[in-house]
Signal recognition particle protein
Amino acid sequence: MFENLSDRLSGVLDRLTKQGALSEDDVKTALREVRVALLEADVSLPVARAFIKKVQDQATGQAVTKSVTPGQQVVKIVHDALVETLSGEGDPGALKIDNPPAPILMVGLQGSGKTTTTAKLAKRLKEKEGKRVLMASLDVNRPAAMEQLEILGKQIGVDTLPIVKGEDPVAIAKRAKTQASLGGYDVYMLDTAGRLHIDQELIQQAADVRDVANPRETLLVVDGLTGQDAVNVAEEFDDKIGVTGVVLTRMDGDGRGGAALSMRAVTGKPIRFVGLGEKMDAIETFEPERIAGRILGMGDIVSLVEKAQETLEAEQAERMMRRFQKGQFNMNDLKMQLEQMQKMGGMEGVMGMMPGMGKMAKQMESAGIDDKIITRQIALIQSMTKKERANPKLLQASRKKRIAKGAGLEVSELNKLLKMQRQMGDMMKKMGKMGKGGMLKQAMK
Ligand code: GDP
């Protein structure tokens, strides 16, 4: 796939001798690589150009912080500039839903994930904010779409407006408003029809609905994997209908997130949420840092480290990083990691943030290792002696049996745990090497 930007930069820049400040040549050399990375991440050329220009002006002459390389320094500057560009004002997750019932209009192309996102947001509003939500499908051309919303509604325990055959979208929107008022709902969500391409009829329909519903929020749902197309779609929708924010779906896929940067730069509209899968919980508030990390091709190591910092003593974290960089990873480390995982919202939460770890998390899942047994795994580790924990290779068959028994588990569980420790050790070693390219270490400062 893509070559990691930090590897690329360290290749180019770590050979440079360290000076007190970034020279124009250093910056230029580095930014050539950054530009390629941006384009590979699907950032449009004009946006990439403008961005590079801005960073170049900022970076030239900037002092190189002690103990980092010019390459790392540039990555940091680029990262910060990305975050700045991606950030909107205020909390992207705060929907304007005062004055009940508050209408939210959902627009977008067919297949963008609009209906799924409508239901995901409804569930979020219900569970996180305790709101009563009514959902209505306005897709009169596709009865299947109306049924889909109804099915999702049942699944998440959110009411949908009963389907009346032959009604037009404006009539449905009016009925939704009436029902929402009479039924004491806080929010009603209007899932408009999609088309494969933008056409006059689609836009007119959405505009008509907008005019009767007077939505507090008009959220445009776009497929984050479609790159530049997504940006064109956003421009057009915003032009014709006016949107208050964008939801980027399929950010769980291989897309590098460049669409987010282009979208923000071109339309000026804030990205509010990202869709991270098909499940109803797979939606998150947009975090510029995460996308910046992704565009730079460094997973979310930065935010992972930040999260770790919150929960770990700084000193402990540093010791841990130093050990990992040397490729040391024993049962004590694994135990600490497992405990961290519990704190950070389970395996998936942590793994998803590290490059290449998503796949590993899936492997572990299929190997039967999941959050439920983290507690048991910790128990297994606790049953080991100090020596065994430091060097699990010492474990003989008879000891394994005793330890498993002590924790009330099968030996196979212990073997799985040992495999996990080896795999994670290998991976940490790799990351340690990358750490020379410094994000891990640098982010600890
Ligand atoms: P609509 O035509 O815009 O209403 O699109 P749907 O909501 O029907 O979604 C189309 C397909 O995309 C469905 O199979 C969804 O499960 C899937 N989908 C929606 N959002 C996401 C997402 O964030 N990630 C992934 N992987 N799939 C998604």
